[in-house]
Design a protein that fits this description.
By secondary structure, the chain is of the alpha+beta class. It is built from 3 helices and 5 strands, in the order βαβααβββ.
Length: about 90
């Protein structure tokens, strides 16, 4: 399956990547794996040491929050958001 990944502006700026990119994968985990193969710096920002999505990161598939095992339909859009905090 081919999908588009869209990053929040803050995350794109943080890791120096484009706001959108294309990936392949039947699940979110596979799509992120494809993403990391071309942009390895993203792995540490999105996944923790156990390989799970970090608590402050949200991934959505076509607007619905997803986990690593969530299916990715062809032509889907994955939104990757990085929480912002401060005060």
């Amino acid at each position: 399956m081919t999908a588009t990944v869209r990053f929040s502006q803050m995350l794109a700026d943080l890791v120096g990547t484009d706001l959108t990119t294309s990936v392949s994968g039947a699940t979110v985990g596979e799509a992120l794996g494809d993403l990391f193969s071309g942009r390895p710096i993203l792995r540490g920002h999105l996944l923790d040491e156990t390989g799970e999505i970090r608590p402050h990161v949200a991934v959505f598939v076509n607007g619905t929050q997803a986990r690593l095992d969530t299916s990715v339909p062809d032509d889907a859009t994955l939104y990757v958001l990085h929480a912002v905090s401060g005060g």
